[in-house]
Design a protein that fits this description.
The protein is α/β, with parallel strands linked by helices. It is built from 15 helices and nine strands. Helix 3 links the parallel strand 1 and strand 2. Helix 7 packs across helix 8 and helix 13 packs across helix 14. It comes from Cyprinus carpio (Common carp).
Length: 373
């Protein structure tokens, strides 16, 4: 409106009769009576005082003359959808189509070649990128590495040169490049910890701190079973005391998996206090503290902390206050991983409870009394 009045200022300024401005923008009716204006609007209001006019609202359906003049007539109207300027390979958006149904429809044009396993779904060439993207970026997988992504893909799908395609896809994943950290080990001779003989008998414990608040939670208590590599991720309202740590361990680990034999932890105040030592002594748990300023002594839980950070950065990088919502998914993804350094049978997930000394003494005493005449 201001541009039009400026264009015909030599006709409108100084007119003895007010002219009428017809617009489909209803808010412009109050432009001359508005009291709270920003600097631009105040400058325009001062300009409008030089003219006598009234603003009349007319819906766009009835304002056909001005609407027709505002359209470009040099471009023909077309019914087809315009083509995207971005190649499909870099477009990441939710797919509303059922992937399996689309694979089966595409197989009519590209049937499975000879040598395709009978228990695998052949993926035509046009849909292979979508399958790899779906497997790699799913919440249940958590942007894993090449080996894990290949294993998850081979569970249900097959196509020639699958290993090469999956390797190239994971190496070119932009989210992985941003969120993952280097895994090179430091030089030097490492002294290994004792090898556990059953699940949940030897635990490694640590805290992940300095996180943004998420539903009132700030740190994470990270617990990993050194035998099966299963983990528990417990969000906490704040950095706990020794008593709070003992209660969290009992309610989230001991109550479910049994009492362990050994717990490896850093030298924080929670694990060096007399409360923690008395708690572990009462349950016949050995307390193992790492070397000072040497986190590699507790390497399993430190490595798990890196994976947790990578997972949370992958899914809530721009919404960091939502990390507590994704924490259960991170725990599920870590438990679903296959650790290639050893074979984990299904029975490794089923714990054999550790019986403290006091209960072993009571049991042996009762057995002797039953055996005595």
């Amino acid at each position: 409106m201001k541009a039009a009045i400026e264009e015909w200022r030599h006709w409108l300024e100084g007119s003895t009769h007010p002219f009428q401005v017809i617009t489909d923008h209803k808010n412009l009716e109050y432009i001359k009576s508005a009291k709270r204006l920003n600097p631009h609007q105040a400058h325009w209001s001062l300009f409008f005082t030089r003219f006598q006019f009234t603003v009349t609202y007319r819906p766009g359906s009835k304002n056909s003359k001005a609407d027709a003049l505002s359209r470009r007539h040099d471009r023909p109207l077309t019914d087809h959808q315009p083509e995207s300027i971005l190649p499909p390979s870099i477009i990441i958006a939710p797919d509303t189509l059922d992937l399996m149904d689309e694979i089966q429809r595409e197989q009519r044009n590209e049937p499975a070649p000879q040598g395709c396993p009978a228990n695998k779904q052949y993926v035509p060439s046009r849909l292979r990128l979508r399958v790899m993207q779906w497997v790699h970026t799913s919440l249940c997988s958590g942007h894993p590495g090449i080996s894990h992504t290949l294993h998850l893909t081979q569970n249900s799908f097959w196509w020639p040169a699958m290993v090469k395609d999956v390797t190239n896809y994971v190496k070119s994943c932009f989210v992985c490049a941003q969120s993952k950290t280097p895994k090179e080990l430091p030089s030097g001779l490492l002294q290994p910890l004792p090898i556990p003989q059953r699940p949940w008998s030897h635990l490694s414990v640590d805290f992940v701190t300095d996180l943004p608040p998420s539903d009132g939670f700030t740190p994470i208590l990270v617990i990993i079973d050194c035998f099966s590599k299963a983990c528990r991720l417990i969000p906490l309202k704040g950095l706990p005391t020794a008593m709070d740590t003992a209660q969290a361990m009992f309610h989230n680990v001991f109550r479910i998996y049994g009492i362990p034999e050994d717990i490896v932890s850093e030298r924080g105040t929670q694990f060096t206090s007399q409360v923690w030592k008395a708690f572990c002594k009462q349950l016949d748990i050995n307390v193992s503290l790492t070397s000072g300023y040497h986190p590699q002594s507790n390497g399993q839980v430190e490595r798990l902390n890196q994976e947790i950070g990578r997972y949370l950065r992958s899914y809530c990088g721009r919404e960091q206050h939502r990390w507590s919502e994704f924490l259960p998914w991170a725990e599920y993804a870590q438990k679903a991983f296959i650790h290639w350094s050893y074979t984990v049978p299904m029975r490794a997930r089923i714990p054999t409870p550790h019986v403290p000394v006091v209960w072993r003494t009571i049991t042996s005493t009762c057995c002797r009394r039953l055996d005595s005449p």
